[in-house]
Amino acid sequence: MEALVAILIGTLTGCGVYLALRDRTFPVVLGLTFLSYAVNLFLLVMGRLTIGKPPIIVEGVTEYADPLPQALVLTAIVISFAMTAFVIVLSLKAHLEMGNDHVDGKHKP
């Protein structure tokens, strides 16, 4: 199972980097989204899922679940949503002003 998750994270990262290096704005936005998915999955997997363990201090319990990865992923989801919305609006504005959707800002003749 660890190999499958590692392959999935690697595939998402590879696709995200490939799409982020494209010359159009929509693949760049999609690539940034794939990269954020890969980072979220990586953070969640690194937290080690523990079943039946309390995330808070209770008397008589020696093992606890770590709530930090879930909090980091939840924060990252909110930030990536805001970033994606901002980049989409920015790319639409650039497309309307320049007449094309190239990321280098060159006008078509």
UniProtKB/TrEMBL annotation:
Record key words, sorted: Cell membrane, Membrane, Transmembrane, Transmembrane helix
Record's subcellular location: Cell membrane
Cellular component GO terms, alphabetical: plasma membrane
Pfam families xrefs: Oxidored_q2
Recorded superkingdom: Bacteria
Membrane topology term: Multi-pass membrane protein
Transmembrane helix as UniProt keyword: yes
Predominant subcellular localization, coarse grouping: membrane
Family: Belongs to the CPA3 antiporters (TC 2.A.63) subunit C family.
Entry protein name: Multisubunit potassium/proton antiporter, PhaC subunit
Organism encoding this protein: Nitrosomonas ureae
